Amino acid sequence: MERKQTNLSVSVDVTKAKDFLAIIDTVGPFVCLIKTHIDIIEDFDSTVIDRLQELSKKHDFLIFEDRKFADIGNTVALQYSSGVYKIASWAHITNAHAVPGPSIVTGLASIGVPLQRGLILLAEMSSKGALTTGSYTEDAVRMARARRDFVIGFIAQHRMETIGASEGDDLADEDFLVLAPGVGLDAKGDAMGQQYRTPEEVVLACGCDIIIVGRGIYGKSDQLNTESVEEQAKRYRSAGWDAYKKRVSL
Ligand code: 5IU
């Protein structure tokens, strides 16, 4: 983030490998992180991963597979390491729901720690009516604190630093990343419950670190326009980084 002066992550939710790679090559210079949903690509084969890894090196970004694991430890370990996608072999970061309890972290860590991967826990979601509130969010933060060798942060809508802390907890050197999806400069939401806030609201007012932006950057149209994608990536990168600089100078 510091090296590239960016706290922008682009979420590339498109179904054709060609579009997926073209968007990533276009936004690559402006992002710290590319977020993928590898299972929505219709013409997936292992060359997509080879190319994604080349782009990660070319543009100096990390890869975050937004897999949202949610099963028992043994099953998630298999889903993470095996199957068609072998996520652990290429995704620097992945994420998991806290709903199964600490055993989900144990299962994923058995695969991810030896590969020096990082895990993000879902503490809050951006969608309308999400059940990730109150004691659920607090327990997700406690689960992260218990596995700081593997959990590097949260998907959340606010900074989590004092949430779920008990007296006597040593939080002095705690520095979890907070990644916030549901960011848009032009729309307030979509027709399926997504809710958007601006980078200012998310980073400056709520203390999140990374903004995750999807359709705000690549639009909805079937016809990919890489010029407009580049323009929007620059726009969100500036908005996110300006908000971050303001926050850290307060
Ligand atoms: N995403 C959310 N909200 C969440 C979580 C993940 O939007 O709480 I956890 C994902 C879904 C999509 C991306 O892949 O982030 C947001 O895309 P848009 O910016 O196009 O809404």
- SS content category: alpha/beta
The multimeric state of the shown protein is single chain
Q: What share of residues is helical? A: 25-40%
Beta-strand proportion: 15-25%
Mean of residue pLDDT values: 95
Question: Can you offer a commentary on this structure?
Answer:
It comes from Leucogyrophana mollusca. This is Orotidine 5'-phosphate decarboxylase. Helix 1 (17-27) packs across helix 8 (226-248) and helix 6 packs parallel to helix 8. It is built from eight helices and eight strands, in the order E-H-E-H-E-H-E-H-E-H-E-E-H-E-H-H. It has 250 residues and is an alpha/beta fold. An eight-stranded parallel barrel has the order 1-2-3-4-5-6-7-8, surrounded by seven helices. The structure holds 5-iodo-2'-deoxyuridine-5'-monophosphate. 5-iodo-2'-deoxyuridine-5'-monophosphate (5IU) binds next to strand 8 and helix 7. Residues 11, 13, 37, 66, 122, 125-127, 155, 181-182, 194, 212-216 line the site of 5-iodo-2'-deoxyuridine-5'-monophosphate.
